[in-house]
Design goal:
The protein is about 35% helix and about 25% strand. The protein has about 300 residues and is an alpha/beta fold. The chain has one domain: Rossmann fold, CATH 3.40.50. Helix 4 crosses helix 5, helix 4 runs parallel beside helix 7 and helix 5 packs across helix 7.
């Protein structure tokens, strides 16, 4: 089975502090996974703020260069040093969808102008009929039409509509891979499932693989085929989504699940996760030796051999 995307022992190290207090921080530490070309899937990256998930996404998009390891798309290395033609070809195949749709669009610019410029850039056409057709086809995939958005400014659309327009814009060049960074965190709770179901539809009906980046275990459980859980740059657990989230094994994975407030807990004052999980999870951060160890159920879990 050929690979659509290969992330091969990738690390990103940043230098922090001043001249006399400089230290090296692993924002991403030895991460590996593969997405197959023949089997579209939703691959989720879960982690809290500072876990490295967005830095990893930026490296996949070629916006950051790995300090170690390599990222390949269809066998070709992804690099920030691609020439203009190679960059355009890459971005036609790997498109981003960002967290805040209101920041993705200039409030003084009509949203269909973004769609039009994207169509002209990637489809290399000057025909207005071809541009309109490409815009409408992309919008229909996300449950909108060109007639609904033509001439409208961002403030005239709801957050959910605007995020769907952002996804439609990314779909215009028909990419096989979308990188979605917290795509539902800035829309109302009532609209989140509409966006999540849209991503599932893109996988099922149009063969688009999605890297879904989130800290929300509820949507991750619903949407994901496979996932990785990251803590301070390291993958602590990875595997089939239901296997990992139904019965998490690593203390940090268990802590994330224990931190989700359930309907049964509402009003009961059970806001604090198990104290021992917090302590254990924090203690493991200081371990200098660890490895991912496979389990019989398809997952891999980070273990910490005794020194």
């Amino acid at each position: 089975m050929s690979a659509l995307l290969e992330v091969d022992h990738v690390s990103k190290i940043f230098s922090m502090g001043g001249l006399l207090s400089r230290r090296m921080v692993h924002a991403v530490d030895d991460v590996s996974f593969t997405i197959a070309a023949e089997s579209p899937e939703i691959f989720t990256i879960i982690g809290e703020s500072g876990s490295g998930k967005t830095t990893l996404a930026r490296m996949i998009l070629g916006l950051e260069h790995p300090s170690e390891g390599q990222i390949r798309f269809r066998g070709e290395p992804v690099s920030i040093r691609l020439g203009a033609a190679a960059r355009l070809k890459f971005m036609a195949n790997v498109q981003p969808v960002f967290q805040n749709p209101f920041e993705a669009f200039n409030p003084l610019k009509q949203v269909d102008r973004y769609l039009s410029s994207t169509a002209r850039r990637f489809l290399k056409t000057t025909s207005q009929a071809d541009v309109d057709r490409a815009m409408d086809e992309a919008l229909v995939k996300v449950g909108l039409t060109l007639a609904e958005v033509r001439g409208r400014f961002p403030h005239e659309l709801s957050g959910g509509q605007l995020q769907r327009v952002a996804i439609a814009r990314a779909l215009i060049p028909n990419p096989p891979l979308l990188i979605t960074d917290e795509p539902v965190s800035m829309v109302d709770a009532s609209l989140r499932m509409a966006i999540v179901n849209l991503l599932k539809s893109l996988r099922d009906n149009f063969g688009v693989s999605v890297i879904y980046i989130t800290h929300d275990l509820a949507t991750a459980y619903y949407i994901s085929d496979r996932l990785i859980i990251m803590q301070r740059g390291k993958v602590v657990e990875m595997g089939p989504a239901r296997v990992v989230l139904d019965h998490p094994e690593h203390p940090y994975s268990r802590l994330l699940k224990a931190s989700v407030l359930s309907a049964e807990d509402a009003g009961a004052g059970k806001l604090d996760p198990a104290a021992e999980l917090v302590t254990t999870s924090n203690d493991l951060l200081h371990k200098t030796t660890s490895r991912l160890e496979p389990r019989g159920d398809g997952r891999q879990v980070r273990v910490y051999p005794a020194a």
